[in-house]
Amino acid sequence: MGTNGSTMLEPLRQGLPPLDPASVSNAASCALPPRFEAVRDARQFTRRTLDQWDVGDRFDDVCLVVSELVTNALRHALPADTPRPADQDPPVRLHLMRWTGRVVCAVRDPSHDSPVAGDSDDCAAESGRGLFLVESFADSWGWHPLAGTLDGKVVWALFRLDQGSSA
């Protein structure tokens, strides 16, 4: 894992919970094309990655939250009126990081709108429900705008791992 392991984390550093990116024991990321099938791709990528990391009983929680965060990100990345040069990085990127005792998933999207959880009284409303699920299943979550050359924001969720579950 060459030098891009730590540089990949640079844009995330400012908005993540106070964990030292230098002490990440595992990190993986995948770019997601702006198509709704990318949610399935993200789930498969997350399952494969978590399988290798042995995250015990948080496996389903992390997969569910990744699905919700990627779905939200794609909703913002998909407007047809935003032409994208072919050589440009796909607008949505999923990062998974593991520290001892913690897993963080972070999803980058091109929108500057702040995510709002449960901003609707209507239980059937699509918008806002995803973040309510994120709030319910993750131990903490947050977001921050990206600085520098990257446009948009990162939304992250943190999961504490039960130390007894590792083999």
Task: Report on this structure.
The chain is α+β, with helices and mostly antiparallel strands and 167 residues long. It is 32% helix and 22% strand. It contains four helices and five strands, in the order H-E-H-H-E-E-H-E-E. The protein has a five-stranded antiparallel β-sheet with strand order 1-2-3-5-4, covered by helices on one side. It starts with a helix and ends in a 7-residue tail after the last strand. The relative contact order is 0.21. The N terminus is likely disordered.
List the SSEs and their pairings.
Blueprint: H1 4-13, E1 26-32, H2 38-53, H3 59-77, E2 92-99, E3 102-109, H4 129-137, E4 140-145, E5 153-160
Antiparallel strand pairs: 1-2, 2-3, 3-5, 4-5
Helix pairs in contact: 2-3, 3-4
In summary, what is this structure?
The protein is an alpha+beta fold and 167 residues long. It has helices spanning 4-13, 38-53, 59-77, 129-137, and strands at 26-32, 92-99, 102-109, 140-145, 153-160. The radius of gyration is 15 Å and the shape is globular.
Tell me what portion of residues adopts beta-strand conformation: 15-25%
Mean pLDDT rating:
78
What's the total number of strands?
5
Number of helical segments? 4
Question: What gap, in angstroms, lies between the N and C termini?
Answer: 25 Å
Shape: globular
The biggest sheet, with number of strands, parallel, antiparallel or mixed sense and barrel status, is: 5 strands, antiparallel
Determine Rg (CA atoms, Å).
15 Å
